[in-house]
């Protein structure tokens, strides 16, 4: 890194230039403190310094997010004014354990508070933190109605046990076993957006339903509605043995190849790996010889689609070119893969739906003519 620092900040200042402060920016880009100072230079050449407050969780509504901010700011105002020696009241190890316990268990976490007191997070918030936050906001001169409104949102979340994380987990649990993983996540996202457009806070939200998924409503018309985005890629200079192991570990038959900039440059198939390994068996390499790179066996001329490609067009391409995998590409970068197995899954769902809503003839019944 040191060789990339081509300026001295004080020299730049002395010459009337704006220092780039590359080392500081690199440091702040790799060390993520709860309160992180960030220095940058805008496109117009104007430098700016900001402080990121990273402790606040997502809302998931504007009102919930403002409530989080009021809760935290009130606590900081009151505790900084009334507690002289915070480390004397709670050990750092206890604070660290509290952090991980809260991340795992949420409102049900057991935590250690000041002077070694043990309690549930829910009790800590209701009996200790909310009164402290209210006193801090009063100390800062905040409007009493605003304080009551936003701290009330936090209190309602705690008393009902319904926050954003709990809403998502409970929604996914109720949809378990129905639809695809993509459809469930689609429904969760669609439900969150729909509820965000109302005036209700997250503690008042009903859980997401599978029928809120776009793919469930309109079927599988586009590739994006069922493509597999959980993909593994390799580089052209990776050894073929790595691809063979990857296929065995993950039980996959196609592995995309990306260059250093993340652009799709090839595709390795299970058949291609088998041909290569068969050749090694017939003609063993010299002892100590280098492994063959992926670039030796990857297919370079690829048929690709985009997330917006119609499903019927994708099926037609696979049949026309007799291929078992279609890389899904957006702006030159691979975002998913589409295989024959995906279409088998779609076909089974369509047939099941037809059977569910079919006429007596399609379900094996007979018809009595009038």
Word description of this protein:
- There is one protein chain.
- The chain has 370 residues and is an alpha+beta fold.
- It has 4 domains: 2-53, no CATH class; 62-158, no CATH class; 164-218, no CATH class; 225-351, CBS-domain.
- Helices cover 46% and strands 12% of the residues.
- It contains 13 helices and 8 strands.
- It has a two-stranded antiparallel ribbon with strand order 1-2. The chain has a two-stranded antiparallel ribbon with strand order 3-4.
- Helix 3 (62-82) crosses helix 5, helix 3 (62-82) packs across helix 6 and helix 5 (121-139) packs antiparallel against helix 6.
- The chain is extended.
Percentage of β-strand residues:
5-15%
Number of strands: 8
The parts where pLDDT drops under 50 for at least 5 residues are 359-370
Major β-sheet profile: 2 strands, antiparallel
- CATH superfamily annotation of the largest domain: CBS-domain
Give the overall form. Answer: extended
Radius of gyration: 29 Å
Q: What is the CATH architecture annotation of the largest domain?
A: Roll
Tally of DSSP helical segments: 13
First-to-last CA distance: 87 Å
